[in-house]
Amino acid sequence: MELAKTNWPAVEQYLTDSTLLILPIGSVEQHGPNGLIGTDHLVSEALARDIGKDLNVFVAPTLAYGMSHHHLAFPGSTSVSPRTLILLVNEILSGFYRNGFRRFFFINGHGGNDSSLKAAFSEFLLDHSKARTSLANWWLLPEVMEQEKAYFGGVNGYHATCGEVAVTWHLFPDRETPIPPGQAPDPHHEWPLGPERFRALYPDGRMGSDPSLSTGEKGRVLYEIAFRVIRDKVREFGSAP
Ligand code: NI
Fold first, then answer.
1. Distance from the CA of 20 to the center of ligand 1, in angstroms?
2. How far is the CA of 164 from the centre of ligand 1 (A)?
3. 3-class state of residue 218 by DSSP
């Protein structure tokens, strides 16, 4: 159920029974030569929408922009700073809290958001004693990683991964773009990296991946695993005492 496509009396009615809200978050950043710039928010948005529909839970509008400083040397990428993201998340949650939401489940598609989200939760929870927050990073679920290992072995990579490219091809089959085989460099240098250094170390934007192995069918399987696991987590989070 999409919050953006409903009216306030319907939300007020919902809140008499549930105070749970799902919030998708991602990024706007390069995903290698054949991955979509919106990958991280498009995947979390699809998962959130499908899970919200399955469980009859409201889904907030997607926070498409994330902390992507390290990708800024690639055209089409943009970023908000950690401190902005912490403030933004805190203020968005505070608004929803004020009119009755209490449980906030984030579905995240981007690693660069993880530490800022957790910092935002720490600050928010200090001032909102009845609130609860939770977070699922879909690509880090053990069930997803196990299937990726079966499909892609050691070349799934760390950015513009075979798994995330495959999932976007499942969601947007008309965007499928083949790429010649070959693993991107994975020099395991320091982290985090500034934008220019990132591009020097990872010239086409991928980190250690070989998305020539990606297919929409593999993406479907990975997406369905993520859907099932996160749906169960959301259900448990919503009903826990
Ligand atoms: Ni990504």
1. 26
2. 6
3. helix
- CB crowding 77-93: b at 16 or more within 10 Å, else e: bebbebeebbebbbebb
- Confidence at 42, pLDDT banded by 50, 70, 90: very high
Q: What phi and psi, each to the nearest 5 degrees, are found at residue 199?
A: -70, -30
- Residue 31 Cα to ligand 1 midpoint, Å, equals 6
- How much distance in Å is there from the Cα of 79 to the middle of ligand 1? 13
Distance between Cα 102 and ligand 1 center (Å): 29
pLDDT in tens, 196-205: 999 999 999 9
- Going along the chain from its start, the domains and CATH numbers come out as 3-239 (3.40.50.10310)
| Distance from the alpha carbon of residue 160 to the mean position of ligand 1, in angstroms | 6
CA of 26 to the centre of ligand 1 (A): 8
By the 8 A CB rule, do 85 and 66 touch? yes
| Residue 193 CA: distances (Å) to CA of 21, 75, 183 | 34, 17, 21
**Residue in 81, 145, 74, 154 with CA at minimum distance from that of residue 112:** 81
Cα–ligand 1 centroid distance for 136 (angstroms): 14
CA distance 57 to 88: 22
Rounded to two decimals, what is the model's pTM?
0.97
CA of 49 to the centre of ligand 1 (A): 18
Residue labelled with tokens 């950043």? 29
CA atoms of 131 and 174, how far apart (whole Å): 41
